[in-house]
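Hey L., structure's done. Input below.
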Amino acid sequence: MDNKCGYFFISEHSLVVEVLKGFVHTSDYFKIKEAQIKDKNVLSAKNFLIDFRLNTNDFNFECMKNIYDKASELASFYSRYKSSILADTPLQTAQSILFNSFSDAKGKIFAVFSSMERALAFLFIDSAEKDFIEDKIADFIK
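Output:
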């Protein structure tokens, strides 16, 4: 059975939300398409999510929910990292822990780590930004 999942990433530096639509097939083949929503524009985000929903008729909402839950766990983990809980942990090991925590039985969830400060995968630096995205996703998966 094919699963269609949405991958949500955020860059703390540009504050650009990158929505990656990943199509996860039984062959483990990933086809990724990108789209961007800039400057926390609520209307643009809403319109994009509506368009995203309309163009993925057989979107697996349970899969999206699983990804959302994993992303929330990862955001929490990163928050603890930022609070210096992992201050003595080597960067590479920390990245590995984060990547492994952001995986799902249905397929590996892609995450990009250029550094801990630029980790992309629902790593919310700004609480207002976190609330904004969480609200959009929560509305989307209802």
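Residues 3-140 form one domain. The longest strand covers residues 3-10.

-- N.
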